[in-house]
Amino acid sequence: MSSQRPSPAVLRAFGAQGQPAPLAGGRGTSWAAGDLVFKPDDGPAPAWLASVVPDGFRLAAPVTTRDGDLVHDGWTATRWVAGSSPDYSQVDTWRAILAAGRAFHRAVADLPRPDDLDTRHDRWALADRVAWGERTTRFHPAFAGLAARLRAALRPLGPAQIVHGDLSGNVLFAPGLPPAVIDVSTYWRPPAYAEGVVIADALCWHDAPASLWRRLEVPATAVARALLFRMATTNELVDADFDDEARRYDRAATALGL
To answer: Which residue, among 189, 200, 172, has the nearest Cα to 134 in the 3D structure?
Structure first.
């Protein structure tokens, strides 16, 4: 958990009530105060989220300051939404996450490409470019052979649009309410890629059955592209357990028949 917290000036700017409390999950940098959730701004705020009309899902929508800004002193805020993480051991959970993602992607399908995507240089953005052949990297020896296998399985996935590239842990559920989509990680890619990331995460870190991609009708090539993305993200680290990570990625690739 980051020791950095939103200052009183930030809380006042967004009109928050109460003292900030740290939130678990994600990158460990989020804080809740009243009905708002604060995060350090790691790039231009996704202003386009304010134009999204949810249908079949709820959205943690961005909040502006009293002056109409989306960022104040390096912090952004979104509206808090009710919900909790689901049981990731159940196939139906992954089906519900995919359904929420599909509803979200339908809602944003006609939005233009955000201008800020080209200015992102965090390790997730860099890894995404590797996965799509827009950037080269030297993979760790534990990953090199698997990277070649995954690249051989890549195929076109359709037209690009705004997608949420990290749905797996960012869909919350509450009884009687539509699923809530939070912490949108913006990419300009085909929606199938975002679905592939969900399946890749399920196979690598949640012991999902090897048949999950078939049962939920996500193309193997989408999952292969997503595995390349996750592996390239790990590759950016200097202190990862590369052998353990390689075993996880290899297990998922084997489930795809690669």
So the answer is: 189
